[in-house]
C-alpha cells in the first residue's frame, strides 16, 4: 500500500513524496534534496523529535500515511563507506565481499557468482521483503536504493519461476480436488437416462457425495477444460443450462445422493467413536505413563501464492469493523478495575486451580531430531524432572546429558517446575537435543521402540482422549447453575404476603 510523506525543508517549503512500502528513508531524503537543491549527506530526517534510520524502509519505519518529517542538519557529515555483502546461493553457500553503495546488483552478482548467474532463467535478488527480478531490474537497482550505505547485509540469489511463489511463508493444506472424470460420467449418465425410475438410481449412483446443480457442474467443466492443454482432444457432451427445469428423475437422484451422504457421515462418526473407545487396544504401549512412539507424518504442502498489494487494502466495511472492535476493547479496558499485585496473583491462582480441576491429564510429546515422537500421559502436578526421567527410560544411552525445550523462543525448562506452572496443561510439544553431539549419528531411542511404533492417527486419537476436559467437572458446573435459582426462590417464598406488597 503506497503512502504520501510530507517533508518540511530548511527553506520552509513542504515537499510531498509518493513512496511504496519498499522505498527507503534515504531515497525519500535524496528525492527532496534533489528538488529543493540541498546536499543529502548534510541532513537527516526527524519525526516527532526522533531521528530516522536512513537504511530502513517505509514498511518497517512505523510511519503513518501523510506523516510530517522535518529535515535537520546532521551532527556529522555522512561519508560513504563500503558495505560488506554476503550473497547466499540456492544451495546455502555464502560468498562475501565489500562493495561501494553505488554498485549495481548485477555487477555484484557478476563479481561473486558469475557461473550461477548464467544458469538462472530469471535471476532474483531478495533482501528483507524486497524482490528485484530479472537482469534489467538488477542492472538498474543499486545497493544505495536498497538502503545499504554502511554495515553488513545478506542478499539471497534465487531463480524466480514463471509462477511466482512467496518465499519463507508457511504453507497450508488443500482439500483434494475431485476427479473430473467421475463428474463427467455422472452427467452423461443423467443425460442418457432422463426418465429412469427409482429402481435404476441405486445401480447408477455409487458416489456418496450429493449431486451438484447443473450450472455449477458446467462452470467446473469449463474451467477444467481451459486449464488442460489437450482440450481439443476431449469429447465432452454439453450439459443442460440451469434455466431449463429439472426433471423429476434428477430431483429424486439428488435426494437419494443426499440420503446416502448423510448415512455415510453417520456411519463414519459411529466408527470413529468406536475406534476412540477401543484405541488402547490398537496402540502399543512401551511402559509407564502410557508411553507410545510414532513417526511424524509427512504431508504434501503447497506454498501460498504471492498476493498483490491490492489484497491488503481494506474496504470501508472492514475499516468500520476494525474501528468498532477497537472501541469495544477501549471500553473494556476503561471499565476494568485496577488490580494490585496481590489481587492479580490471587486471580492467577484461581485460574490455575480451575484448570487443575478441569484437566486431570497432560499429554506430553517429545520430538527427536530423527522425527520420531515419544508420547506420555502425566498429571498437572508432575514436574519437568519427571518428564526427564521418563525420557531417560527410553533412551539408548540414558547416561548421556541432554536437555528439552519448547519453541518458539527456545526456552529451557527448570527441573522443579510443575507442568501446571509451566502452562503445559492440557498438552505440550517439546524438543530433544544432546548437549554434546556425536560425530557418528546413532538412533536416539532403544531398538525395540523403533520396532513397536504406533500409527500417527492412532496416537492423535489417544492424545485427544486424554487431554479432553473432565466430564464430571462440566456436569457439576451445569448442575450448580441450575440449583442457584431454586435456592433463591425458596428463600423468597418464606417472606410474608404483606412484606411482598
Automatic annotation (TrEMBL):
Q: Which domain of life is it from?
A: Eukaryota
GO BP term, pick one:
intracellular protein transport
Q: Where is the composition biased (Low complexity)?
A: 482-493
Segments for region (Disordered): 183-213, 465-501
Q: Which GO terms describe its cellular component?
A: cytoplasm; nucleus; vesicle membrane
Ranges annotated as biased composition (Basic and acidic residues): 204-213
InterPro entries tied to this protein: TUG-UBL1, Ubiquitin-like_domsf, UBX1_UBXN9
Put simply, this protein is called: TUG ubiquitin-like domain-containing protein
- Specify the TUG ubiquitin-like domain's residue ranges: 9-71
Q: Name one Pfam family in it.
A: TUG-UBL1
